Amino acid sequence: MRHLIPSYIRVPVVFLAIVGLVEYFVDSGDQPAFMEQPIIMLFLLLVLLILLAIEGIVGSMDNILYQSLDEEAKARYDAQKVAPSKLTLWIKKTYKKLLGSRPIEEEGEIILDHNYDGIKELDNSLPPWWLYGFYATIIFGVVYMARYHVFNADDQFVEYEIEYAEAQRAIEEYKRTAKNLVDANTVEVLTEAADLNAGKAIFEGKCVVCHKADGGGGIGPNLTDEYWILGGGIKNVFRTISEGGRDGKGMVSWKKEGLTPLEMAQVASYVLEFQGTTPAEPKPAEGDLWVDETAEDANSDDSAEGSEPTDATEEEAVVEETTEAETNE
């Protein structure tokens, strides 16, 4: 097998296979592993040198052994080297069998009487590979017709819609678990201590200068009252931190300043912790009174559900009073 593949093909193929294995097993992100970790480049260069050295050593030993042979042994070696391998012979034999042609010596048995200007026709059978392929298409057609036109299985359009819906669900699930992919529409209040502590660290490092450590406000507005310039709640606060305050005044866009979505969600959740607290020197309220309409709708629904039994009770009381009046009469 080694003599069938020249070294200028064998060495690059083996080397590229090793490079592929390294890329598969080494997690290097978007960059190639040998660029992310220079030690891997040194390893690959060492592997290449070893492969070249092996080829050189084996070639030298082969030449030395060949030169040590006598003329008769060299002739046998050369004849064996140029002789086709067993694999090559098997491939040729299989090809002829699949071709299904008759040898020239047997053409006289299958020749037809047709003769046109000396051109005669042979009655060769169809090649087995073609015949078996034709039978396979017939079987496939029958199975396809039965599956999709008799039993009404899902066709490719329905399968596409199913796979698309599954992919969308997987994406939404991933977004819920991947906190760094949140935006102003999908952000939720973070309540874990680790997230709040991280938000506190960001607030103390970037926000205290304008809002004070207790959220009472300085250059920036008071964060402890219920009045907000650009809206309260986690989504509005996240959007304000991300996009910045009012044009020409207000804080900068922290998205442009390098905060990740997760960090903005953490500091926004920490900011909401100031609600209802009492700062040492609170700044007067700015903006408009903000009411969470979502919470109000939920409370209204709960009130409506809770009022239904009361109405039923009142109706029962009226019926009972009417019955008692009729009884007294």
Order of helices and strands: HHHHHHEEHHHHEHHEH
The value of Rg in angstroms is: 42 Å
The main pleated sheet reads as: 2 strands, antiparallel
Strand order of the largest sheet: 1-2
What is the first-to-last residue Cα distance?
116 Å
Helical residue percent band: 55-70%
Number of helices: 13
- Mean pLDDT reading: 83
Q: What fraction strand? A: under 5%
Task: Provide a descriptive summary of the structure in words.
- The relative contact order is 0.05.
- This protein has a two-stranded antiparallel ribbon with strand order 1-2. Strands 3-4 form a two-stranded antiparallel sheet.
- The model is unreliable at 324-329 (pLDDT under 50).
- Helix content is 62%, strand content 4%.
- It has 329 residues and is mostly helical.
- The chain contains 13 helices and four strands.
Layout: helices, strands, pairs:
Blueprint: H1 7-25, H2 33-36, H3 38-67, H4 71-82, H5 86-99, H6 107-110, E1 111-116, E2 119-122, H7 128-150, H8 156-177, H9 193-206, H10 208-211, E3 227-228, H11 233-243, H12 261-272, E4 288-289, H13 293-328
Helix pairs in contact: 1-3, 9-12, 11-12
Keywords:
two-stranded antiparallel ribbon, mainly alpha, 4 strands, two-stranded antiparallel sheet, 4% strand, 329 residues
Q: Care to give the gist of this entry?
A:
By secondary structure, the protein is mainly alpha-helical. It has helices at residues 7-25, 33-36, 38-67, 71-82, 86-99, 107-110, 128-150, 156-177, 193-206, 208-211, 233-243, 261-272, 293-328, and strands at residues 111-116, 119-122, 227-228, 288-289.
